[in-house]
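ARCHIVE CARD
Drawer: 12
Card no.: 0347
Subject: one protein chain, sequence and derived structure
Cross-reference: see card 0346
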Amino acid sequence: MIKISVLGIKEGIGKTTISLALAKELSKEGRTLLVDKTPSCGLWRKIGLDGDFACQGQLCFLKLFKRPFRIEELDEDSIKSKLISAYKERWDYVVIDNFSCAVPENPIIGLDVDSLPIFVTDPFNVRVTLEYSERFFRKYGLIINLTQREYKINKEISKLFQISVSIPVTEENDVGLFLLPLIADLKGRKQTLYE
Protein backbone atom coordinates (compact mmCIF):
# COMPACT_ATOMS: atom_id res chain seq x y z
CA MET A 1 0.00 0.00 0.00
CA ILE A 2 1.29 3.43 -0.93
CA LYS A 3 -0.02 6.28 1.22
CA ILE A 4 0.02 9.87 0.00
CA SER A 5 -0.71 12.81 2.33
CA VAL A 6 -1.92 15.98 0.65
CA LEU A 7 -0.81 18.91 2.81
CA GLY A 8 -0.82 22.68 2.70
CA ILE A 9 -0.71 25.79 4.83
CA LYS A 10 -3.73 27.54 3.45
CA GLU A 11 -7.44 26.98 2.84
CA GLY A 12 -8.70 27.40 -0.71
CA ILE A 13 -5.58 26.37 -2.61
CA GLY A 14 -7.07 23.15 -3.93
CA LYS A 15 -5.96 20.42 -1.50
CA THR A 16 -9.34 18.69 -1.60
CA THR A 17 -9.74 19.08 -5.37
CA ILE A 18 -6.23 17.70 -5.91
CA SER A 19 -6.82 14.85 -3.42
CA LEU A 20 -9.99 13.86 -5.25
CA ALA A 21 -8.41 14.11 -8.71
CA LEU A 22 -5.36 12.14 -7.54
CA ALA A 23 -7.52 9.41 -6.00
CA LYS A 24 -9.69 9.17 -9.13
CA GLU A 25 -6.62 8.76 -11.34
CA LEU A 26 -4.99 6.23 -8.99
CA SER A 27 -8.20 4.20 -8.83
CA LYS A 28 -7.70 3.51 -12.54
CA GLU A 29 -4.47 1.73 -11.51
CA GLY A 30 -5.71 -0.10 -8.40
CA ARG A 31 -7.94 -0.15 -5.36
CA THR A 32 -7.79 3.32 -3.79
CA LEU A 33 -8.99 4.78 -0.50
CA LEU A 34 -9.49 8.55 -0.16
CA VAL A 35 -9.46 9.66 3.48
CA ASP A 36 -11.10 12.93 4.51
CA LYS A 37 -9.06 14.10 7.52
CA THR A 38 -10.54 17.59 7.54
CA PRO A 39 -12.68 18.60 10.54
CA SER A 40 -14.82 20.57 8.07
CA CYS A 41 -15.54 17.30 6.20
CA GLY A 42 -14.69 19.28 3.06
CA LEU A 43 -14.32 16.29 0.78
CA TRP A 44 -17.53 14.75 2.05
CA ARG A 45 -19.46 17.95 1.47
CA LYS A 46 -17.85 18.35 -1.98
CA ILE A 47 -18.89 14.92 -3.25
CA GLY A 48 -22.19 14.76 -1.34
CA LEU A 49 -21.98 11.29 0.19
CA ASP A 50 -23.88 9.94 3.18
CA GLY A 51 -22.42 7.91 6.03
CA ASP A 52 -18.77 7.49 6.93
CA PHE A 53 -17.72 5.11 4.15
CA ALA A 54 -18.69 4.73 0.50
CA CYS A 55 -17.28 3.15 -2.66
CA GLN A 56 -17.60 3.89 -6.34
CA GLY A 57 -15.86 1.09 -8.25
CA GLN A 58 -12.22 0.86 -7.14
CA LEU A 59 -12.40 4.22 -5.34
CA CYS A 60 -13.59 4.28 -1.73
CA PHE A 61 -14.08 7.25 0.58
CA LEU A 62 -13.62 7.39 4.35
CA LYS A 63 -14.82 10.31 6.47
CA LEU A 64 -13.08 10.55 9.84
CA PHE A 65 -14.95 13.31 11.64
CA LYS A 66 -18.57 12.70 12.60
CA ARG A 67 -20.01 16.10 11.83
CA PRO A 68 -18.61 19.08 9.94
CA PHE A 69 -16.97 21.79 12.05
CA ARG A 70 -17.49 19.91 15.33
CA ILE A 71 -14.47 18.24 16.86
CA GLU A 72 -15.49 16.25 19.88
CA GLU A 73 -13.31 14.83 22.63
CA LEU A 74 -13.78 11.26 21.46
CA ASP A 75 -12.85 12.03 17.85
CA GLU A 76 -9.17 11.14 18.28
CA ASP A 77 -9.91 7.60 19.50
CA SER A 78 -12.64 7.18 16.89
CA ILE A 79 -10.30 8.37 14.12
CA LYS A 80 -7.51 6.03 15.17
CA SER A 81 -9.94 3.13 15.24
CA LYS A 82 -11.42 3.99 11.82
CA LEU A 83 -7.99 4.35 10.23
CA ILE A 84 -6.53 1.17 11.70
CA SER A 85 -9.60 -0.74 10.56
CA ALA A 86 -9.56 0.80 7.08
CA TYR A 87 -5.83 0.23 6.60
CA LYS A 88 -6.27 -3.50 7.31
CA GLU A 89 -8.09 -3.73 3.98
CA ARG A 90 -6.00 -4.38 0.89
CA TRP A 91 -5.46 -1.02 -0.81
CA ASP A 92 -3.06 -0.26 -3.60
CA TYR A 93 -3.19 3.45 -2.78
CA VAL A 94 -4.42 5.63 0.07
CA VAL A 95 -4.78 9.38 -0.52
CA ILE A 96 -5.23 11.51 2.58
CA ASP A 97 -6.85 14.94 2.35
CA ASN A 98 -5.50 16.81 5.40
CA PHE A 99 -6.62 19.99 7.10
CA SER A 100 -4.57 23.16 6.58
CA CYS A 101 -1.35 23.52 8.58
CA ALA A 102 -1.41 19.85 9.64
CA VAL A 103 1.87 18.94 11.34
CA PRO A 104 3.37 15.51 12.08
CA GLU A 105 3.26 16.19 15.84
CA ASN A 106 -0.54 16.19 15.68
CA PRO A 107 -1.69 12.70 16.77
CA ILE A 108 -4.18 12.49 13.89
CA ILE A 109 -1.53 13.41 11.30
CA GLY A 110 1.14 11.33 13.04
CA LEU A 111 -0.83 8.17 12.28
CA ASP A 112 0.32 8.50 8.68
CA VAL A 113 3.94 9.47 9.22
CA ASP A 114 4.89 6.72 6.75
CA SER A 115 3.03 8.43 3.89
CA LEU A 116 4.53 10.34 0.97
CA PRO A 117 3.83 14.03 1.65
CA ILE A 118 2.67 16.20 -1.23
CA PHE A 119 2.67 19.90 -0.44
CA VAL A 120 0.07 21.99 -2.27
CA THR A 121 0.43 25.74 -2.57
CA ASP A 122 -0.26 28.62 -4.91
CA PRO A 123 2.42 30.82 -6.54
CA PHE A 124 2.14 33.43 -3.77
CA ASN A 125 2.86 31.04 -0.89
CA VAL A 126 5.73 28.91 -2.17
CA ARG A 127 8.30 30.26 0.29
CA VAL A 128 6.14 29.70 3.37
CA THR A 129 5.18 26.24 2.03
CA LEU A 130 8.88 25.37 1.78
CA GLU A 131 9.32 26.42 5.41
CA TYR A 132 6.28 24.33 6.37
CA SER A 133 7.65 21.28 4.51
CA GLU A 134 10.74 21.36 6.77
CA ARG A 135 8.58 20.02 9.62
CA PHE A 136 8.16 16.71 7.81
CA PHE A 137 10.46 13.71 7.70
CA ARG A 138 10.57 13.67 3.92
CA LYS A 139 9.60 15.79 0.95
CA TYR A 140 8.04 13.79 -1.82
CA GLY A 141 6.01 16.17 -3.95
CA LEU A 142 5.25 19.83 -4.53
CA ILE A 143 2.18 20.99 -6.42
CA ILE A 144 1.90 24.66 -7.22
CA ASN A 145 -1.76 25.15 -8.04
CA LEU A 146 -3.70 27.99 -9.64
CA THR A 147 -0.80 29.18 -11.77
CA GLN A 148 -0.80 30.92 -15.11
CA ARG A 149 -0.36 28.52 -18.05
CA GLU A 150 3.24 29.56 -18.73
CA TYR A 151 4.32 29.22 -15.07
CA LYS A 152 7.54 27.24 -14.53
CA ILE A 153 8.66 25.96 -11.14
CA ASN A 154 12.08 27.29 -10.16
CA LYS A 155 14.73 24.58 -10.68
CA GLU A 156 16.24 25.13 -7.23
CA ILE A 157 12.82 24.57 -5.66
CA SER A 158 12.14 21.49 -7.83
CA LYS A 159 15.40 19.92 -6.61
CA LEU A 160 14.04 19.89 -3.04
CA PHE A 161 11.32 17.40 -4.00
CA GLN A 162 11.25 14.08 -5.81
CA ILE A 163 8.50 15.38 -8.07
CA SER A 164 7.02 18.80 -8.70
CA VAL A 165 4.02 19.83 -10.77
CA SER A 166 2.31 23.09 -11.58
CA ILE A 167 -1.40 23.22 -12.32
CA PRO A 168 -2.79 26.24 -14.13
CA VAL A 169 -6.20 27.67 -13.38
CA THR A 170 -8.38 25.08 -15.09
CA GLU A 171 -11.69 23.28 -14.90
CA GLU A 172 -11.92 20.98 -11.89
CA ASN A 173 -12.46 17.95 -14.13
CA ASP A 174 -9.13 18.64 -15.90
CA VAL A 175 -6.93 18.71 -12.77
CA GLY A 176 -6.13 15.00 -13.09
CA LEU A 177 -4.46 15.59 -16.47
CA PHE A 178 -1.81 17.72 -14.79
CA LEU A 179 -1.17 15.00 -12.21
CA LEU A 180 -0.12 12.37 -14.77
CA PRO A 181 3.64 12.68 -14.02
CA LEU A 182 2.84 12.12 -10.34
CA ILE A 183 0.55 9.18 -11.18
CA ALA A 184 3.31 7.59 -13.29
CA ASP A 185 5.80 7.91 -10.44
CA LEU A 186 3.38 6.41 -7.90
CA LYS A 187 2.51 3.58 -10.29
CA GLY A 188 6.23 2.82 -10.63
CA ARG A 189 6.60 2.79 -6.85
CA LYS A 190 3.71 0.34 -6.56
CA GLN A 191 5.28 -1.99 -9.13
CA THR A 192 8.57 -1.89 -7.23
CA LEU A 193 6.74 -2.81 -4.00
CA TYR A 194 5.17 -5.89 -5.55
CA GLU A 195 8.27 -7.19 -7.33
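Annotation on reverse: Strands lie at 2-7, 32-37, 53-56, 59-63, 93-98, 116-121, 141-147, 163-168. The domain at 2-194 is CATH 3.40.50.300 (Rossmann fold).
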